[in-house]
Design brief:
- It is a single chain.
- Helix 5 packs across helix 7 (about 115-130) and helix 9 (about 170-180) packs parallel to helix 10.
- The protein is α/β, with parallel strands linked by helices.
- The protein has a five-stranded parallel beta sheet with strand order 2-1-3-4-5, sandwiched between helices.
- About 60% of the residues lie in helices and about 10% in strands.
């Protein structure tokens, strides 16, 4: 009875963090199945041994730390061999701080590194953003001010905005005309149409990666349907968008190299 109660309590503690851990895992690996697989392994480890998670830490930090150990042991060697613009551990640190909103100190706890190494990783990841190959980016956003903010972030990174669309019809037409390297999309558009449906239609004829930027992440992090590889929550910080763009382009490059 006591063991069952412990399992119930642990489930209650980690449940709110699982959708975001899945988001992080997919962004880190660049693959839905691989990311979700590592999350499943994390949960299996917890089922097998409740103490696999460090209960002296904040539960979210402890959960991500356990995931990081499992991902690192299973994928670290293979990922380290990839050629890419950002090294795996610096990418990991950047995602933790800018997308997952951990403090640098918390990210260091997740990765089990000291403050000095954390500072070096953060600096390396930030420096490496400037080495990214320039991309052509389509923005799908119905709020003009937000679209302008995103456009400024994109252009300051050195990328080109090939179009801004605010409806499903405009988005599909713009994608067909411009053939972008990357799409940044909201899920709720000006005419009441869905950015998700627009992206799904675009991806029937193109493998272009997509970063969703939305005030309603819970609509996409349900576990009931295919979830996006990259998801930023509004209100967003420029650094979050920059990190997601870097990660999406990194994986696009490695997919092209493998193909």
């Amino acid at each position: 009875m006591h063991a069952m109660k412990e399992r119930e309590n642990l489930s209650t503690v980690i449940a709110p963090h699982l959708p975001y851990l899945r988001r992080y895992a997919r962004a880190l690996t660049g693959d839905q199945a691989a990311g979700d697989g590592y999350v499943a392994q994390t949960l299996e480890a917890l089922i097998a041994d409740r103490d696999a998670m460090d209960h002296d830490l904040d539960p979210r930090v402890a959960l991500y730390r356990l995931f990081s150990r499992i991902w690192g042991s299973a994928a670290g060697a293979a990922d380290a061999a990839m050629d890419g613009p950002v090294t795996p551990r610096s990418r990991q640190f950047l995602l933790l701080v800018t997308v997952e909103d951990f403090s640098p100190e918390e990210a260091a706890l997740v990765m089990e590194i000291d403050a000095e190494e954390a500072g070096l990783l953060h600096a390396a990841a930030t420096d490496d953003l400037s080495t990214l190959a320039r991309a052509r980016i389509l923005i799908i956003e119905d709020e003009p001010i937000i679209a302008l903010d995103i456009e400024n972030i994109v252009t300051e990174m050195g990328h080109a905005v090939v179009g801004v669309a605010d409806t499903h019809r405009e988005a599909v037409a713009a994608a067909g005309e411009t053939r972008p390297d990357l799409i940044l999309a909201d899920i709720q558009l000006a005419d009441g149409s869905s950015g998700v449906e627009a992206v799904e239609e675009i991806q029937t004829t193109s493998d272009v990666p997509v970063i969703f930027i939305t005030a309603y992440p819970e609509r996409l992090l349900t576990g009931d349907r295919v979830e996006p590889l990259f998801l930023i929550t509004k209100p967003f910080r420029p650094k979050s968008v920059e990190a997601a763009i870097a990660q999406a382009l990194f994986h696009r490059k490695t997919w092209a190299t493998r193909g």
